[in-house]
Known about the structure:
2 domains; 205 residues; Glutaredoxin; 8 helices; 4 strands; 4-stranded mixed β-sheet
Amino acid sequence: MADLTLYHASPSRSSVALWMLEEIGQPYDIHKLDLQKGEQLKSGYLAINPMGKVPALKHKNAVITESAAICTYLADEFPQAKLNVPVGNPQRGVYLKWLFFGPSIFEPAMTDVAFPRKEAANPTALGYRPFDQVLDIMAKAVSKGPYLMGEQFTAADVVLGSGIRYGTMFKLVPERKEFADYIARFSERPALKRAMEKDHGAKAA
């Protein structure tokens, strides 16, 4: 039994954590949950993640939830994978910004467009800008390349890259050359290919 266990469902946001686990190259177990059967809402799993959402990662006696937090944790816990910017490096602040930009800015702005409110929200009450502006900011960042932190591929690319890839796949993000080029740069990573194969297997099971 491995020290790392991912509570996973496919397709879901836990695919982000699955990719990250493949990137760090450590042994891990997968505990599959069937969302259609509501297994994420049963008492056993709610004891692990009271939100009843995936992913959740168990590492020894610690349980970490939220995709970006899981990726941050794994990158710091296994620095030999070189997926983090370490404490003490001023660029760590930029790295952390992009790590949390996806779930805090990009995803909410995209959701607003995909599932519009009956009445528009007061812009001053939101922690993000309109979707088009968010996309412009992201396009500028990834076009500098090859990755968000320059030559170094990091956990931030796993998190934000997954979001952009998902958004373009399901036509939630408009086609833009900057995003297509960015996706092409990380799509050949062996870890992502392995994660996709495992995800496909989980979906078929």
